[in-house]
Amino acid sequence: MSWQAKFERRPPMKRSGRPKPPALKNRLVYSTYPLHIDGYLMRDCHDCVRPQLFKFARAGVLSAILIGSLLYLPPFNGYVRDTVDFFDKRPRETALFIGNSRTFYHNMPGMVRSIADSAGYPNKLHVVMDAEPGVSLETHMDDPNTQALLAQRWDHVVLQVLSSDQYSAERAGRTWEVAADLIREAQAKGSTPAMFVTWRYTDQCKDNQGMPKSAAGVSPSGYANMHRNIQEQHARLAALTGVDLVNVGLVWEDLQSRPQSFTLYDDCNHPSIYGSYLSALMFYGYFSKREVADVTFKPREISPEDARMLRSVVSRYFKDKAIATPPSADLGRGDGTSGPG
């Protein structure tokens, strides 16, 4: 007997104990029911899409979403930026930010680049940040990593003083001497240094949230004098070294004196997203010498109306200073614009 005849006489295989599948009206369905055709135990691949394949596909989609999200977070966003910059043929302009949490909150230095790109700035800003929580300029001075960065030439080197060192002249210690040394070090390499002039503490917060350990013992009664001390000490430093001042604290204090729908503070010390956006706008105006009102970038947490108002305030600040300062004078002393350095 031929093998064909033997196969044809083979009795049909019995169905498993599974229930009978429903009638198939739509051919694209999930099915794991066994089908029998002339004694063969088969899967009808026209009427089923295997769940395993969907599991793999779903896992692949979720992985792609996760990887895509990570690319927008530090440090991976820096790699993406570097890749994009490789194809960006604009002239390169470099900026090094040295500070602490008042600098790195909401990635303020990176925000400056986004602001510049949105305004059509003709240069490609390459921004590097050296900032850690609660770190003073004296600590940076002794840090080999900071020294390695300062050994390079930058178009801009931005220095930010620890907040508690600015509370009063008595608490400053060697802060302003160290700042002067760092300024001269940057100047010696051909870089243009600038001071990030920040803001006083606020008592409109809960349980001293955000206050650095170095601020232990400070009294809210001295916060108003803290603003005055910040302005005076930076003015002296500028007179001594010729450093430029990006005076965020002056604009900050003016905004605080007027009712707003938002707060510039995240806690007793650090900037909110509004405060960081204000700082970034000030640095863009300082770096570019261009109209800040042309900026279109804004953080998603800020409404278009509030962003427009902050841009208008910064724009008016630079225009008023330009009118008040003679062209032959040094525009960098305390007004956030550039002067010889």
Q: What's the short story on this structure?
A:
The protein is 42% helix and 11% strand.
Keywords summarizing the entry:
single chain, 5-stranded parallel sheet, disordered C terminus
Describe the structure.
This protein is an alpha/beta fold and 341 residues long. 42% of the residues lie in helices and 11% in strands. The chain contains twelve helices and seven strands. It has helices at residues 3-9, 51-70, 76-86, 101-104, 108-118, 137-141, 144-150, 175-188, 223-241, 248-256, 273-288, 304-324, and strands spanning 35-37, 40-42, 92-99, 124-131, 156-159, 192-197, 244-247. The protein has a five-stranded parallel β-sheet, with helices on both faces. It has a two-stranded antiparallel sheet with strand order 1-2. Helix 5 (108-118) packs across helix 11. The radius of gyration is 31 Å and the shape is globular. 33% of the residues are buried. Residues 27-33, 35-40, 330-334 and 336-341 have low confidence and may be disordered.
